[in-house]
Amino acid sequence: MSVKCVVWDLDGTLWDGIAxxxxxxxxxxxxxxxxxxxxxxxxRGVLSSIASRTDPSILALLLADExxxxxxxxxxxxxxxxxxxxxxxxxxxxxxxxxxAFVDDNPFERAEVAxxxxxxLVLAPEQAAGLLDSPELDPSALTPEARGRVRRxxxxxxxxxxxxxxxxxxxxxxxxxxxxxxLRAATEADVPRxxxxxxxxxxxxxxxxxPPVQDVLARLTDPDGWFLPVAELSDRFGGYGLIGAAVIxxxxxxxxxxxxxxxxxxxxxxxxxxxxxxxxxxxxxxMDRALTEGALELHVPVRPTGANVELRVLFRQCGLRxxxxxxxxxxxxxxxxxxxxxxxxxxxLELEKVDP
Length: 356
Hints:
Oligomer: single chain
């Protein structure tokens, strides 16, 4: 899994010296090269956070410094182990521990995190700049969604604050958000983001397979054989960008009496939209399109993992059942589209369906 958030220590890492030993209530000056690296990571879609074993008053001072505070999401500063702080950051941001990198000058702290959280990439400060060498962070390969990732996490923090203050039900809050879901066929410009979704998503991903860009482009040019739908979401807080995609093979009946079936070779949705009704709406639109084009069955190969349980539960709620195994650890989920009710479109979502 690629690094989505770098978690920085403070004393000896973000700045020289120990903040609590200051005789005045002021912060130590951050290292210019560390700030520059944080800013470059942000420009490439990588978040930064803080995990420091220090007096919480230091965090209060940092948060009062707006230019500095704006660089960090979900910062943690107290006297607990750094591994505890990293677990909180992972939970608050909704990203897996394997998507975190931890930077600390203290070998003891690095060893504690490495022992408690072996999924986390642990680095000394002098190793941190090497993160920029990742092919996934090549500026020429970044999608608009990747470049705007830091901004979107800040928007999500405002959504959470608004939901905490909201006095109505969850459905009422979602309706108040004014969510608009656009469902359309993919274009060539969407291909890098489609591949990125396949690579980066885990909770809402059917197989974990990442299709080569050239394969996706070839299927785009074969509308008789393939359908590549995508979904975009926005609300009163901002735009989520392209948050869902699928690669669907249009089937043909093997016999004159056999039902035509569409097979979903890949379905990937950003975990940032979990619980907002996007997944069932996206799946319902796919079912509608299949029926419109004469298909009576939908088949979805799924590779069951500990991460995609939520997606498999969604499929069951939408009427899909296991119809048989397939080699390489896949199970085939399927249903008839002309029998039984199809999943409802959530009433709090404003839908824009753009037909090819």
